[in-house]
Amino acid sequence: MNYKKTIIYLILLSSFQLTIYANDTQANESKEAIKLELIEELVTQHGFDEQYITAIFEKVAYLPKIIDNISKPAEKTKTWNEYRGIFFTPARIAAGVIFAKQHETLLLKAAQETGVPVDVILGILGVETYFGRIQGNYKVIDSLYTLVTGYPPRSAFFKKELINLFYLAREQGIAIGEIKGSYAGAMGAAQFIPSSYRAYAVDGDNDGIIDLFENWNDIVMSIANYLQQNGWRRNEDIISQTSLDDEQLKTFASKALKPQYTIEILNNNGINFENNLNNDSLAQIILLEGDVKKTYVGFHNFYVITTYNRNVMYALSVIQVGRSIQSKTL
Q: Which residues lie closer than 8 Å to 34 by C-beta, 6 or more apart?
């Protein structure tokens, strides 16, 4: 009897292993097909040298860990208090105070030219890279290749970013295999994806080079330019606080990234809050998991911040980190 069970077990194990092998083989063939399509497109449609492109893709690596990371981002797995706790720490705030004092003139220049407040720039730098300390250790080309071939929900998006990476490397004279960033392909202290680097990065000190990895003039001015170009409105409030009863919370609170109601509509429904905007300006009650004590109202500029990272917890963290830093520099 035990002998028969052993035989059955071995047959099932062998079948399972063959299934895994077949699936792995099919997946590898699919990745290889996508790689060949990418090479052809970069050469025939974008004019890159075939020998250069082929040599790059011979060295590119598929990194399964990246698929795990993008499938479980902190924005989707943590409550507001847990998420905020990642960035709102005494050490990070202290580092921000030092940075703010060291770069006071530059930060004021960026704010004056673009209308983006100093505290917002500080908040983005603090949340994104701990003021340049954490810029990512993945080769960006590996990250983007992995996401193109292994993450179907956003494969088209990351394919566009991969193509932009090749253009960026050529335009900036950077060896494409040396560019490092996050698992999602964001780079430098500003954490720009390749298309944003090409579209919004600026030469902050007019030296003819745009360096978002080490040049703080370029980094700070590029962050401010990004927000300005994405619709930042000078001197408008970003958020406010209010109190809601259960019925108001049920009716008006939302996880949406864009405001759905005017200030007038909210006020007419008994939801009052301080702001410097017109009554016909849009506003949105922000729904935060795990924090029922505070209710925030986001205005247009709040949602401009979410163009950097499309999550309300991200934008709120940026605001709170930046304001905490600035309050300690006054």
A: 148, 149
